[in-house]
Each structure stands twice: as structure tokens, then as C-alpha cells.
Amino acid sequence: MNEPTSWHALVQRAGVLADTRADAVSRPVLGITGAPGAGKSTLGAALVADLRTSGRRVALVGMDGFHLAQAELERLGRAERKGAPDTFDADGFVILLRRLRLREARTAYAPALRRDLEEPVAASVPVEPGVDLVVTEGNYLLLDDEPWAQVQPLLEECWYLDLPDSVRRERLAKRHQAHGRSSRQAWERALGSDEQNAQLVTACRARADLVVTAPGFVPPSDGSAPH
Ligand SMILES: Nc1ncnc2c1ncn2[C@@H]1O[C@H](COP(=O)(O)OP(=O)(O)OP(=O)(O)O)[C@@H](O)[C@H]1O
Ligand SMILES: [Mg+2]
Fold it and tell me: What is the pTM of this model?
């Protein structure tokens, strides 16, 4: 399970998923999970870009679009723990995945997290009828608490992106700073709330179909990488 994974091998493996079901009624969904800051969104975007370059029709639907709105987090008294499993509309995510597994005749729309607004925005990501593979990524794809436990059976396979904690926390703190937090606030977040979430995620590692330790791709430097 923990075989070394070259970037080429990852793209090929995802390409096989896209190709095998190309004429079927159902549509495969590939999951990418890992702790906060492991690089899931960056890897997902790079994978989808390469698959599209090879002519496949692929959509990227992040779990992060199912963050509860800030006002709802405040109403629930959970704003400080934004990112914890109960701060997402997990049931909504499960229902959308079920729907995306069917090739519906019309475009399905998924929400996306706008990190600049720190809010999810509905109907941001179109999944057109011709899409042959949906890639989804997020922290809790392999959690075994309800309703998250309903996610894994909907995935064709799920990859776990594993990065040394020191590198991961460093990147996370840097990303928090890039979004306007002071260095102290960024590290408080990375070592506090994010770390509690990370422990939940790392406990799920053994349930992954593939553990990716060194994806070996160069993230785009043109600003198109997710933040
Ligand atoms: N291969 C890489 N090399 C260098 N930096 C990277 C790489 N992958 C991701 N990063 C950077 O690390 C940070 C975290 O990456 P990313 O946002 O993709 O993680 P994530 O797992 O989606 O995090 P979250 O769980 O918070 O959504 C980002 O600032 C990103 O630009
Ligand atoms: Mg992300």
C-alpha cells in the first residue's frame, strides 16, 4: 500500500479510473485525503490539470465547499473550531457525491470555499454530463463517524497524502499568514485547532487505498494553486 508513487504513476492511475467507466451509467469518484496543509487541494488541482491535458473530462469538487457559513458557525458557537468535522454540512456532501456518481443529463453544481471571503459559495463548480471522473479532496473522507462514514463507500478509491508533520505545519502556518494572520496567530491556528483536526485525520490513514508520501510534482508558480 505504501509503494513509492511517482507523479506519472499517480496521473496514470487516476486516468485508468476515468477511462474504465467512460461509457457506463455510473461515474467514478476519486478521493484525496490527508491532514490540514498536507497539499490535498494543490495535488487535486495538479492532477485534474494533467488529466485534462491528456484529453480526459474531469471535475474537481472539494469537500471544503461544504463548510458551514460564518454566520451559522457563530450561531452554533463553533466559529473558533472552523474546520472540525461538525463545522461542515457533511450530509449535504454525501448527497452531492451520490448524485455525482450518476451521470445526470444536466450539469450538477458544487459549492466551493472562497478562502479570500472565508465563506463557501454555492454553485461554483459545474460537473457537466460528459465528465468521466470526479476528484474530491478534503480532511474527512475516511472518517468513520456518521455521517462521514458514508463517504468512503461512494469513492472508487481514496488516496492519503502523507507529509512529515513539521513540513505540513510549516506550510499551513505560511498559508495562514498569506491570508492576513500575523505570524503568532498563524502558528496558534496551525498548532491549535488545525492540529486537533489533524489527529482525527491521521487516525484514518490505514483505511486509504494508497498512501502518497512524495507526490513529486511541482506546484504551479503562476498563482493558480489553491490557497
Ligand atoms: N508540493 C508542494 N510543494 C510546495 N508547497 C506546496 C506543495 N503542495 C502544497 N503546497 C503549499 O502548502 C500549502 C498547503 O497546501 P494545500 O492548501 O493544497 O493543502 P490542503 O491539504 O488542501 O490544506 P487544507 O486541509 O487546509 O485544505 C499551500 O500554501 C500550498 O501552496
Ligand atoms: Mg485544501
Answer: 0.94
